[in-house]
Predict the 3D structure of the following.
Amino acid sequence: MAPNDTTVQAAGCVLWRRSPVDGRLEVCLVHRPKYDDWSHPKGKLKRGEEPLAAALREVEEETGYRAVAGTELSTLNYMVGGRPKQVRYWAAEAGPGTFVPTTEVDRLLWLTPTEARQRLTQPRDRALVDELIRAFEHT
């Protein structure tokens, strides 16, 4: 699906960190009460905003963490409310920050990749966790 004037442009990150307990990989998921879903942090681009800048801005707004972008992951295309939506994703390591609940995102979880795959509401988001794991296996 090629983007056009009616395609909603968005960007996000599969946010990860090393567990403070055992150093294992953890993936951050956010809960959005408006949709009652668990997803990767993401949001719409502002006018003239580059997708990567938007992805990092959304991560900080939704999670409270500054992130360092890594590998670009898949771009997801799907329909929302009868309009096409395109979301570009990056793997991003969580930097300093503190989560503060808001009306947009009321909960945040750090989960193992397996737990994250099970918790994600949309099946299309699960493949992004697999991509993150593959990226780690190649570094």
Observations:
- Residues 8-137 form a domain with the Nucleoside Triphosphate Pyrophosphohydrolase fold (CATH 3.90.79.10).
- The CA atoms of residues 12 and 89 lie 5 Å apart.
- Residues 123-137 form the longest helix (15 residues).
